[in-house]
Write a structure and sequence with these properties.
The protein contains 13 helices and 12 strands. It has about 325 residues and is α/β, with parallel strands linked by helices. It has one domain: P-loop containing nucleotide triphosphate hydrolases (Rossmann fold, 3-Layer(aba) Sandwich), CATH 3.40.50.300. An 8-stranded mixed beta sheet has the order 6-7-8-3-9-10-12-11, with helices on both faces. A 4-stranded antiparallel beta sheet has the order 2-1-4-5. The radius of gyration is 21 Å and the shape is globular. The protein starts with 5 loop residues before the first strand and ends with a helix.
Length: about 325
Protein backbone atom coordinates (compact mmCIF):
# COMPACT_ATOMS: atom_id res chain seq x y z
CA UNK A 1 0.00 0.00 0.00
CA UNK A 2 1.32 3.46 -0.90
CA UNK A 3 2.18 6.03 1.76
CA UNK A 4 -0.68 8.29 2.94
CA UNK A 5 -1.13 11.63 1.20
CA UNK A 6 -1.63 13.46 4.50
CA UNK A 7 -0.46 12.42 7.97
CA UNK A 8 -1.64 14.39 11.02
CA UNK A 9 0.05 13.54 14.31
CA UNK A 10 -0.99 14.88 17.75
CA UNK A 11 -2.39 18.11 16.31
CA UNK A 12 -3.19 20.75 18.94
CA UNK A 13 -4.81 24.14 18.44
CA UNK A 14 -5.52 26.45 21.36
CA UNK A 15 -6.73 30.04 21.22
CA UNK A 16 -5.61 32.39 24.01
CA UNK A 17 -8.20 34.50 25.82
CA UNK A 18 -6.77 37.85 26.84
CA UNK A 19 -8.10 40.50 29.19
CA UNK A 20 -7.06 43.73 30.87
CA UNK A 21 -5.20 46.71 29.52
CA UNK A 22 -2.08 44.61 29.00
CA UNK A 23 -4.00 41.86 27.19
CA UNK A 24 -2.58 39.15 29.43
CA UNK A 25 -3.66 35.60 28.74
CA UNK A 26 -6.21 34.58 31.34
CA UNK A 27 -7.43 31.35 29.77
CA UNK A 28 -7.43 29.46 26.50
CA UNK A 29 -9.88 27.71 24.24
CA UNK A 30 -8.78 24.10 23.78
CA UNK A 31 -10.25 23.71 20.29
CA UNK A 32 -8.21 20.71 19.09
CA UNK A 33 -6.39 18.30 21.41
CA UNK A 34 -3.92 15.68 20.16
CA UNK A 35 -5.79 14.75 16.96
CA UNK A 36 -4.12 12.13 14.74
CA UNK A 37 -5.26 10.58 11.46
CA UNK A 38 -4.09 10.02 7.90
CA UNK A 39 -5.74 10.37 4.48
CA UNK A 40 -4.77 8.34 1.43
CA UNK A 41 -4.63 9.72 -2.09
CA UNK A 42 -8.08 9.73 -3.70
CA UNK A 43 -9.82 8.99 -0.38
CA UNK A 44 -12.85 10.74 1.09
CA UNK A 45 -12.27 10.97 4.83
CA UNK A 46 -14.91 12.60 7.02
CA UNK A 47 -14.93 14.36 10.38
CA UNK A 48 -18.31 14.42 12.10
CA UNK A 49 -19.66 15.72 15.39
CA UNK A 50 -21.75 18.45 16.98
CA UNK A 51 -21.06 22.14 16.49
CA UNK A 52 -18.21 23.08 18.79
CA UNK A 53 -16.43 19.75 18.51
CA UNK A 54 -13.43 21.25 16.68
CA UNK A 55 -14.03 19.86 13.17
CA UNK A 56 -13.67 23.13 11.28
CA UNK A 57 -10.67 24.17 13.38
CA UNK A 58 -8.90 20.97 12.31
CA UNK A 59 -9.52 21.77 8.64
CA UNK A 60 -8.38 25.37 8.92
CA UNK A 61 -5.28 24.40 10.91
CA UNK A 62 -4.32 21.79 8.33
CA UNK A 63 -4.29 24.43 5.57
CA UNK A 64 -2.40 27.05 7.57
CA UNK A 65 -5.31 29.40 8.18
CA UNK A 66 -4.55 28.82 11.86
CA UNK A 67 -1.04 28.09 13.07
CA UNK A 68 -0.86 24.80 15.02
CA UNK A 69 -0.10 25.09 18.72
CA UNK A 70 1.59 21.68 18.62
CA UNK A 71 1.79 18.50 16.55
CA UNK A 72 2.90 17.79 13.00
CA UNK A 73 1.27 17.82 9.56
CA UNK A 74 3.01 15.94 6.74
CA UNK A 75 1.79 16.18 3.15
CA UNK A 76 3.33 13.98 0.46
CA UNK A 77 6.16 13.28 2.88
CA UNK A 78 6.93 16.97 3.54
CA UNK A 79 6.47 18.61 6.93
CA UNK A 80 4.10 21.53 6.34
CA UNK A 81 3.46 22.28 10.01
CA UNK A 82 5.47 25.48 9.72
CA UNK A 83 4.98 26.89 6.25
CA UNK A 84 8.32 28.16 5.03
CA UNK A 85 8.34 30.11 1.76
CA UNK A 86 9.38 27.00 -0.17
CA UNK A 87 6.85 24.48 1.14
CA UNK A 88 4.09 27.11 1.45
CA UNK A 89 4.04 27.52 -2.33
CA UNK A 90 4.06 23.75 -2.84
CA UNK A 91 1.31 23.11 -0.27
CA UNK A 92 -0.98 25.93 -1.41
CA UNK A 93 -0.98 24.54 -4.94
CA UNK A 94 -1.75 21.02 -3.73
CA UNK A 95 -4.28 21.72 -0.94
CA UNK A 96 -7.37 23.92 -1.13
CA UNK A 97 -10.53 24.58 0.89
CA UNK A 98 -14.22 25.08 0.16
CA UNK A 99 -15.93 27.00 2.95
CA UNK A 100 -19.39 26.58 4.42
CA UNK A 101 -20.93 29.87 3.30
CA UNK A 102 -20.17 30.87 -0.31
CA UNK A 103 -21.73 34.29 0.23
CA UNK A 104 -19.07 35.28 2.75
CA UNK A 105 -16.17 33.46 1.05
CA UNK A 106 -16.52 35.43 -2.23
CA UNK A 107 -15.68 39.13 -2.49
CA UNK A 108 -18.93 40.89 -3.53
CA UNK A 109 -16.97 43.68 -5.25
CA UNK A 110 -15.11 41.39 -7.60
CA UNK A 111 -16.47 39.72 -10.69
CA UNK A 112 -16.34 35.94 -10.95
CA UNK A 113 -13.61 36.32 -13.58
CA UNK A 114 -11.51 38.47 -11.25
CA UNK A 115 -12.01 36.00 -8.37
CA UNK A 116 -11.01 32.95 -10.38
CA UNK A 117 -8.09 34.46 -12.26
CA UNK A 118 -6.44 35.86 -9.11
CA UNK A 119 -5.04 32.44 -8.23
CA UNK A 120 -3.80 31.97 -11.79
CA UNK A 121 -2.00 35.32 -11.64
CA UNK A 122 -0.40 34.70 -8.23
CA UNK A 123 0.93 31.29 -9.27
CA UNK A 124 1.79 32.41 -12.82
CA UNK A 125 -0.32 29.66 -14.39
CA UNK A 126 -1.35 31.52 -17.55
CA UNK A 127 0.85 33.49 -19.92
CA UNK A 128 -1.53 36.35 -20.66
CA UNK A 129 -5.06 37.69 -20.13
CA UNK A 130 -6.53 35.77 -23.05
CA UNK A 131 -5.24 32.46 -21.74
CA UNK A 132 -6.51 33.29 -18.23
CA UNK A 133 -9.95 34.02 -19.63
CA UNK A 134 -9.96 30.71 -21.45
CA UNK A 135 -8.96 28.89 -18.27
CA UNK A 136 -11.61 30.69 -16.20
CA UNK A 137 -14.23 29.63 -18.73
CA UNK A 138 -12.98 26.05 -18.47
CA UNK A 139 -13.21 26.13 -14.66
CA UNK A 140 -16.81 27.35 -14.84
CA UNK A 141 -17.72 24.60 -17.29
CA UNK A 142 -16.09 22.09 -14.94
CA UNK A 143 -18.57 23.08 -12.21
CA UNK A 144 -21.46 23.11 -14.68
CA UNK A 145 -21.81 26.88 -15.09
CA UNK A 146 -21.84 28.73 -18.46
CA UNK A 147 -18.53 30.47 -19.26
CA UNK A 148 -20.28 33.85 -19.59
CA UNK A 149 -20.95 33.75 -15.84
CA UNK A 150 -17.41 35.05 -15.43
CA UNK A 151 -18.78 38.55 -16.06
CA UNK A 152 -21.31 38.32 -13.23
CA UNK A 153 -20.88 39.30 -9.58
CA UNK A 154 -21.65 37.08 -6.55
CA UNK A 155 -24.84 39.04 -5.76
CA UNK A 156 -26.20 38.05 -9.18
CA UNK A 157 -25.90 34.32 -8.43
CA UNK A 158 -27.93 31.91 -6.32
CA UNK A 159 -26.42 30.19 -3.29
CA UNK A 160 -25.76 27.00 -5.25
CA UNK A 161 -24.13 28.93 -8.10
CA UNK A 162 -21.90 30.80 -5.67
CA UNK A 163 -20.80 27.51 -4.13
CA UNK A 164 -19.99 26.19 -7.60
CA UNK A 165 -17.77 29.25 -8.12
CA UNK A 166 -16.08 28.54 -4.77
CA UNK A 167 -15.45 24.96 -5.90
CA UNK A 168 -14.07 26.23 -9.23
CA UNK A 169 -11.67 28.50 -7.33
CA UNK A 170 -10.46 25.52 -5.30
CA UNK A 171 -9.86 23.56 -8.52
CA UNK A 172 -7.89 26.31 -10.26
CA UNK A 173 -4.47 24.93 -9.26
CA UNK A 174 -5.39 21.28 -9.88
CA UNK A 175 -5.04 20.26 -6.21
CA UNK A 176 -4.72 16.70 -4.96
CA UNK A 177 -6.42 17.48 -1.61
CA UNK A 178 -9.47 19.61 -0.72
CA UNK A 179 -10.96 20.38 2.69
CA UNK A 180 -14.75 20.62 2.38
CA UNK A 181 -16.04 22.49 5.43
CA UNK A 182 -19.78 21.72 5.50
CA UNK A 183 -20.04 22.81 1.83
CA UNK A 184 -23.80 22.22 1.57
CA UNK A 185 -25.14 23.21 4.99
CA UNK A 186 -25.87 26.83 3.95
CA UNK A 187 -27.82 25.74 0.84
CA UNK A 188 -31.42 24.78 0.23
CA UNK A 189 -32.12 21.05 0.41
CA UNK A 190 -32.95 20.91 -3.31
CA UNK A 191 -29.56 22.42 -4.15
CA UNK A 192 -27.54 20.30 -1.71
CA UNK A 193 -28.00 17.11 -3.72
CA UNK A 194 -26.76 18.80 -6.91
CA UNK A 195 -23.61 20.07 -5.19
CA UNK A 196 -22.95 16.64 -3.68
CA UNK A 197 -23.28 15.01 -7.11
CA UNK A 198 -20.86 17.58 -8.52
CA UNK A 199 -18.32 16.94 -5.75
CA UNK A 200 -18.60 13.18 -6.30
CA UNK A 201 -18.09 13.52 -10.04
CA UNK A 202 -15.08 15.81 -9.68
CA UNK A 203 -13.46 13.55 -7.08
CA UNK A 204 -13.91 10.45 -9.21
CA UNK A 205 -12.62 12.17 -12.35
CA UNK A 206 -9.61 13.89 -10.80
CA UNK A 207 -8.86 11.35 -8.03
CA UNK A 208 -8.56 14.05 -5.38
CA UNK A 209 -8.64 13.35 -1.67
CA UNK A 210 -11.31 15.08 0.39
CA UNK A 211 -11.45 15.88 4.07
CA UNK A 212 -15.23 16.23 4.35
CA UNK A 213 -16.31 18.05 7.51
CA UNK A 214 -19.98 17.62 8.33
CA UNK A 215 -22.59 17.12 11.03
CA UNK A 216 -24.72 15.09 8.58
CA UNK A 217 -23.95 11.43 9.26
CA UNK A 218 -26.40 10.13 6.66
CA UNK A 219 -24.52 12.08 3.98
CA UNK A 220 -21.17 10.77 5.18
CA UNK A 221 -22.43 7.20 5.01
CA UNK A 222 -22.79 7.57 1.24
CA UNK A 223 -19.72 9.78 0.69
CA UNK A 224 -16.82 8.75 2.91
CA UNK A 225 -14.69 5.62 3.03
CA UNK A 226 -13.61 6.32 6.63
CA UNK A 227 -15.17 8.49 9.32
CA UNK A 228 -13.79 10.00 12.52
CA UNK A 229 -16.15 11.14 15.27
CA UNK A 230 -14.98 14.23 17.17
CA UNK A 231 -16.12 15.46 20.54
CA UNK A 232 -14.73 18.52 22.31
CA UNK A 233 -11.52 18.64 20.31
CA UNK A 234 -10.63 14.94 20.26
CA UNK A 235 -11.32 11.96 18.04
CA UNK A 236 -13.28 9.38 20.03
CA UNK A 237 -13.99 6.85 17.30
CA UNK A 238 -12.51 6.22 13.86
CA UNK A 239 -13.46 3.40 11.51
CA UNK A 240 -14.41 2.49 7.94
CA UNK A 241 -17.71 4.29 7.46
CA UNK A 242 -19.89 1.22 6.93
CA UNK A 243 -18.29 -0.45 9.95
CA UNK A 244 -18.98 2.66 12.02
CA UNK A 245 -22.67 2.59 11.09
CA UNK A 246 -23.18 -1.13 11.56
CA UNK A 247 -21.04 -1.52 14.69
CA UNK A 248 -20.66 1.81 16.55
CA UNK A 249 -18.80 1.36 19.83
CA UNK A 250 -18.56 4.75 21.48
CA UNK A 251 -21.74 5.90 23.29
CA UNK A 252 -21.64 9.33 21.61
CA UNK A 253 -21.39 7.71 18.16
CA UNK A 254 -24.35 5.48 18.96
CA UNK A 255 -26.38 8.52 19.97
CA UNK A 256 -25.56 10.36 16.75
CA UNK A 257 -26.37 7.36 14.56
CA UNK A 258 -29.60 6.66 16.42
CA UNK A 259 -30.86 10.06 15.22
CA UNK A 260 -30.09 9.42 11.53
CA UNK A 261 -33.28 8.95 9.44
CA UNK A 262 -33.72 5.51 7.82
CA UNK A 263 -35.58 4.48 4.67
CA UNK A 264 -35.79 0.71 5.02
CA UNK A 265 -36.72 -1.86 7.65
CA UNK A 266 -33.23 -3.38 7.39
CA UNK A 267 -31.62 -0.07 8.29
CA UNK A 268 -34.10 0.35 11.15
CA UNK A 269 -33.08 -3.01 12.62
CA UNK A 270 -29.38 -2.12 12.38
CA UNK A 271 -29.73 1.28 14.07
CA UNK A 272 -28.82 1.63 17.75
CA UNK A 273 -31.72 2.16 20.12
CA UNK A 274 -32.88 5.78 20.08
CA UNK A 275 -30.92 7.82 22.61
CA UNK A 276 -30.96 11.49 23.53
CA UNK A 277 -28.08 13.70 24.53
CA UNK A 278 -28.60 15.38 27.85
CA UNK A 279 -27.37 18.95 28.16
CA UNK A 280 -25.04 20.72 25.76
CA UNK A 281 -21.46 20.16 24.69
CA UNK A 282 -19.21 21.53 27.49
CA UNK A 283 -17.09 24.62 27.04
CA UNK A 284 -13.65 24.02 25.47
CA UNK A 285 -12.31 26.65 27.85
CA UNK A 286 -12.87 24.38 30.85
CA UNK A 287 -13.50 20.86 29.52
CA UNK A 288 -14.43 18.02 31.91
CA UNK A 289 -11.65 15.81 33.22
CA UNK A 290 -11.22 12.26 32.01
CA UNK A 291 -13.47 11.37 29.08
CA UNK A 292 -15.05 14.66 28.00
CA UNK A 293 -18.35 12.94 27.21
CA UNK A 294 -18.85 11.49 30.69
CA UNK A 295 -21.24 14.24 32.00
CA UNK A 296 -23.69 13.31 29.20
CA UNK A 297 -23.05 9.56 28.99
CA UNK A 298 -25.67 7.12 30.26
CA UNK A 299 -23.01 4.41 30.75
CA UNK A 300 -20.62 6.53 32.81
CA UNK A 301 -18.40 4.85 35.40
CA UNK A 302 -16.12 6.37 38.03
CA UNK A 303 -12.99 5.90 35.93
CA UNK A 304 -14.55 7.94 33.10
CA UNK A 305 -14.33 11.18 35.10
CA UNK A 306 -10.83 10.46 36.36
CA UNK A 307 -8.84 9.19 33.39
CA UNK A 308 -8.82 10.04 29.69
CA UNK A 309 -8.96 6.76 27.75
CA UNK A 310 -6.50 6.12 24.93
CA UNK A 311 -7.64 5.77 21.32
CA UNK A 312 -7.29 2.00 20.93
CA UNK A 313 -7.57 -0.18 17.81
CA UNK A 314 -10.13 -2.78 18.88
CA UNK A 315 -10.33 -4.45 15.46
CA UNK A 316 -8.50 -3.79 12.19
CA UNK A 317 -9.03 -0.14 11.25
CA UNK A 318 -11.57 0.49 14.03
CA UNK A 319 -10.34 2.76 16.84
CA UNK A 320 -12.28 3.87 19.91
CA UNK A 321 -11.53 5.99 22.99
CA UNK A 322 -13.78 4.51 25.70
CA UNK A 323 -13.13 2.78 29.04
CA UNK A 324 -16.34 0.79 28.72
CA UNK A 325 -15.17 -0.75 25.44
CA UNK A 326 -11.43 -1.18 25.93
CA UNK A 327 -11.76 -2.49 29.51
CA UNK A 328 -14.57 -4.92 28.70
Amino acid sequence: MSDPLLVVKDLVKRFPIRAGIFHRKVAEVKAVEAVSFDIRGGEIFSLVGESGSGKSTVGKTLLGIYRPTDGTIRFKGKDVTTLTKENARFFKKEAQMVFQDPKSSLNPRRSIKSTLEETLIVHKIARNGRERERMVGGLLEMVELPPNYMYKYPSMLSGGQRQRVAIARALALDPSFIVLDEPTSALDVSVQAKIIRLLRRLQAKRQMAYLFISHDLSLMRTMASRTAVMYLGRIYELAPTEELFTNPLYPYTKTLISAVPVVSEEERRMKPEKQSLGGEIPSPINPPGGCAFHPRCSLVERVCSEQLPDLVEVKPGHFVRCHGVTNA
